[in-house]
């Protein structure tokens, strides 16, 4: 994998976080979460915060160490495998678990769904490609 591809993937992580900040509005979280008990509402927000922190962390590490990750050796290779599998799982969830009729109209637009899917696929391929490169070297 090339260093520039890891840099772009790192930037894509930060872009995913920025896009993710639209999710509460699009999905009407204010109304839906108000129906939950306070403990469940807090738990939901904590889960969301950890996902955001993980994505920011993946992006930051990718921007800080692109050459090492691109080489795919040692701990950087393990990182690449973990992040690649994370995004591959995310892609599976997008197409197999979240394709429901009650999805908000804004989230059902084909260009949005498939554009996001393409970005996620490319991110997974960058990291899995780096891992494979390190194993093959």
Question: What's the helix and strand layout?
Answer:
Blueprint lengths: L2 H18 L2 H4 L2 H6 L3 H27 L1 H6 L2 H24 L12 H27 L1
Helix pairs in contact: 1-4, 1-7, 6-7
Structural class: mainly alpha
Summed over residues and divided by their number, the pLDDT gives a mean of 92
What is the H/E order? Answer: HHHHHHH
Distance between the termini: 12 Å
Low-confidence stretches: none
Net shape: elongated
Integer-rounded radius of gyration:
17 Å
Please, how many domains? 1
Helix percentage range? over 70%
How many distinct helices?
7
- The tally of strands reads 0
Q: Give a short account of the largest sheet.
A: none
Percent in strands: under 5%
Protein model, in words:
The structure is a single chain. The protein is an all-alpha fold. It has helices spanning 3-20, 23-26, 29-34, 38-64, 66-71, 74-97, 110-136. It has one domain (3-136). It contains seven helices and no strands. Helix 1 (3-20) runs antiparallel to helix 4 (38-64), helix 1 packs antiparallel against helix 7 and helix 6 (74-97) packs antiparallel against helix 7 (110-136). It is elongated, with a radius of gyration of 17 Å.
